[in-house]
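Protein modeling request. Please complete all fields; requests missing the sequence field cannot be processed.
Requester role: graduate student
Desired output: 3D structure, token encoding
Chains: 1
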Amino acid sequence: MEASSLYFRCNITPAQYQAAVTSPAAGAGEFDDWQQWLDAAEVHGVRDLDQKTPENAVALGDLLQGWVDCMYGSLMQYDEASQVWQFALVEFTNNYGEMIQLLAPLRQMAKYAKPESDSFLLVYSYIWGDGDNAFLTLGQQRSQFASGPSPEQRAEADGVLEGLAQALQQQEYDYD
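Delivered output (176 residues):
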């Protein structure tokens, strides 16, 4: 099974963005619906679902920057004019335990997102087309698993990941 991709978009004010990226990254134990998601995906053996945010947790922005720094085909950008924050990884993981390690901190963004926004997070097989792993909405100050993205949300994710994939291909050609 090949690695899935991740796309996250959050509608957030500049002040809330600053508060979010400097806040401690959340642990999986901050959310209580992981098991239902894992059961639906028929995934077993994932541990540490009750791990709370440690007192010395790294800031969310630093955690995400670490992913960007070590992953080719990644994006983290905030557009102050449109008040949109995007984070994407062309090649994320196919391991649900590893997914939770990044989904938990991203889910905390719900408390910072504009309440009426359609902010979302999608983990899916963009490259291979093998389906969705997770779709979460981040509206109304909470994150929750949902059945799937709207056609517009999927097109948005596809467009960003396509741009990253093309940039990766160009880098490969530049090395030849």
